[in-house]
Amino acid sequence: MIRAYKFLMRPTVGQAAALTAMLADHCSLYNGALQERRDAYRHVSKTSIKYGMQSAQLKDIRAFDPERQGRWSFSSQQATLRRLDKAFAAFFRRIKSGETPGYPRFRGVNWFDTVDFPKDGDGCRWDSTPHDSQTRVRLQGVGHVKVKQHRPVVGKVKTVSVKREGKRWYVVLIAEQPQPEPLPATGSVVGIDMGIASFLTTSNGEHIGAPRHGRKAAAKLEAAQRKLSTFGRVHRDKRTKNHQRAVERVADLHRKVRRQRLDHAHKTALDLVRDHDFIAHEDLKIRNMVRTAAPKPDPDKPGAFLPNGAAAKTGLNHSISDAGWGVFLTILHAKAESAGRDVIAVNPRNTSRTCPECGHVSAENRTTQEKFHCVSCGHRAHADVVGASNVLRAGLARRQAQPADEKPPHSCGGVVTSLTNTSPSVPVSRAGSSGT
């Protein structure tokens, strides 16, 4: 199994300058390769340039510019070109599927924050043996950088990445691990219903409140953004130190909210995985749920529009994003895989409108946001508990219908299991390890 580790680096002043230069030179390589692809398509009879053609030019590029390109790892530069190739592959995939294409864009030096090393030992070396009570990572062109290793790395390190977040530098390790023993069975199953008023409600009747980290930080963030906007208007051409401090203040607030969401998601998911052998949740299409309201043209007045509830929809979108459902589901599936638990996503259609006693389906069953009253049998309950119970029932039915040897691929979120995907829709998670 594959797992990721993220550690804080503590570079010296000189090493920090070298890391910044490394990012800038890789950004220049990325933008140059993008410009070459654009020019070839526009001016040379719509010629498409592939990764292999650009990678073959790296040797000449490094020889032509040894000060900026020649001192960095050849493999890391190939990884940067592969990143561009993946961006174009995603661009063409979106065109074929009818989505908004999103042509790859040039990256500013402040928007290029990661350099990848595809193999440990090729341009980089993770040294887990402490030197003077400090772990170090060696990077070509930078040197041996101290790392704050807050937990041991299990397994063989496959790839190493250097990432900048504000003024901090991190090293991200991808390690291949053996399958540990699963957690002891508890004999408990649960269904969960995601919500806004409550972050989630279980089929056992437990309510976990929504932390609303973004809403709590909204006032400070609004003040910081207003101050940043003021400095931006006053100093349009020259970025002063005050402007830079305002930029860092906004970034720090966003970073704090992101860490708070991650912390809440990790703790909530860990409790569920430890207490239950089987977890069922709704297969939420979050990207569709947070779309803006479509405009409604007025048929009687050309050029005018009817009210479409855009303000209310915007507030709902902010609440959904603030809840962090996608991040939570990603972490839940990763921890379930590590603990040997089963997690199944089910169709959320009518889960909060179906009576768990008689099976009657009606929109009138849900009288308010919290109250459920079946118009057929008179059953009363909390609407979210009813939804979670129906999710559990559907999940158990799907698990019984699932062949025992079938193991669908994981496609949930962006953190481990795979660390690359972004969709929170995952059919089934099964595994056998205990790295929770």
Radius of gyration: 25 Å
Strand content: 15-25%
Largest sheet: 7 strands, antiparallel
Main β-sheet, spatial strand arrangement? 2-6-7-1-5-4-3
Integer average pLDDT: 86
**Which quaternary structure do these chains form?**
single chain
Low-confidence stretches: 407-436
In total, how many domains does the architecture comprise?
2
Task: Report the structural category.
Answer: alpha+beta
Element order: H for helix, E for strand: EHHHHEEEEEEEEEHHHEHEEHHEEEHE
The helix content, as a percent range, equals 40-55%
Helix count, DSSP H or I runs of 4 or more residues: 11
Query: Given the C-alpha coordinates, what overall shape results?
Result: globular
Q: First CA to last CA: what distance?
A: 13 Å
For the secondary structure, the number of strands is 17
What does this structure look like?
It is built from 11 helices and 17 strands. It is globular and about 80 Å long. A 7-stranded antiparallel sheet has the order 2-6-7-1-5-4-3. A 6-stranded mixed sheet has the order 10-9-8-11-14-17. Helices cover 40% and strands 20% of the residues. Helix 1 packs across helix 4, helix 6 runs antiparallel to helix 7 and helix 7 crosses helix 10. The chain has 2 domains: 175 residues, no CATH class; 241 residues, no CATH class. Strand 15 and strand 16 form a beta hairpin. The chain is of the alpha+beta class. The longest helix has 35 residues.
